[in-house]
Design goal:
The chain is α+β, with helices and mostly antiparallel strands and 193 residues long. It is 30% helix and 15% strand. It has six helices and four strands; from the N terminus they run ααααββββαα. A four-stranded antiparallel beta sheet has the order 1-2-3-4.
C-alpha cells in the first residue's frame, strides 16, 4: 500500500470508531499542532517519518493505531505518557540500576505499548521510521518500517508471531540507504520539560 492508502485506511478505522485495538470510551484526540510536531523534531534532532507526521497532524495527536494507539506527542489525557517527555526522561536518567535495560539510542522513541512490559519504538533516524520491538527490557530492531508495520496492523497480521519473526539479530538498518550519512542528533533538553 502507498502512504496515501495507509493514511486513508487509518482515517476510515477512526471514522468507524475503531481507532485502536482496545475498546475505549476515550475520544480520539484532536490533531497535533505543527508547533508540537516541530518541537519533537527539534528535541529529537531528526525529522518525523513523513507518514507518522501526517497521521499526527491530520488525524490525531496519539490514541490511534495498533495496540493501545500511538502516544501523544507532548502531553496525554488520564496520565497517559507523552512521547517526548518519556524520551527525554529515558535519555537523561542518571539512576539506572545494573538490572535496568540501557537507554535507547538518541533518535529512537517509545511510540506505543502493547501492554505494560512490551511495545514498539520508532526510529526517527530512518527516513521511513524503522520499528523496534521492546519486550520486558529486551529491545530488537525489526525488519519493518513504519508503513510496513502499519499495513500489517490494518491487514490483521500484526501479531506477536510476526514481530518475533522480523527481529534482527544485530543493529542493522532496514533498506539500502544505510551507507548514507545520517545527520547528527542535536539533542537538547527543552526548558519546558
Amino acid at each position: 500500500m502507498t502512504d496515501d492508502e495507509l493514511f486513508e485506511a487509518v482515517r476510515a478505522r477512526v471514522r468507524e470508531g475503531r481507532p485502536t485495538d482496545e475498546p475505549s470510551a476515550v475520544t480520539v484526540p484532536e490533531p497535533a499542532s505543527l508547533s508540537a510536531v516541530e518541537e519533537v523534531e527539534r528535541v529529537v534532532g531528526y525529522p518525523m517519518p513523513p507518514l507518522v507526521r501526517r497521521l499526527y497532524l491530520e488525524i490525531a495527536d496519539g490514541g490511534i493505531g495498533p495496540f493501545r494507539g500511538f502516544y501523544p506527542l507532548l502531553d496525554g489525557p488520564n496520565s497517559v505518557g507523552a512521547m517526548l517527555v518519556g524520551y527525554v526522561e529515558f535519555l537523561t536518567c542518571e539512576y539506572l540500576a545494573p538490572t535496568d535495560p540501557p537507554p535507547t539510542p538518541a533518535g529512537v522513541l517509545f511510540f506505543c505499548f502493547e501492554h505494560e512490559m512490551s511495545g514498539m519504538l520508532l526510529d526517527f533516524r530512518h527516513p521511513e521510521g524503522q520499528m523496534w520491538f521492546w519486550d520486558q527490557g529486551d529491545r530488537h530492531k525489526l525488519d519493518l518500517t513504519f508503513p510496513q508495520w502499519l499495513e500489517a496492523w490494518l491487514g490483521g497480521r500484526l501479531t506477536e508471531q510476526l514481530l518475533e519473526s522480523r527481529k534482527l539479530q544485530d543493529e542493522s538498518w532496514v533498506g539500502d540507504w544505510v551507507s548514507e550519512e545520517l545527520p547528527p542528533s542535536t539533542f537538547e533538553v527543552p526548558d519546558s520539560l
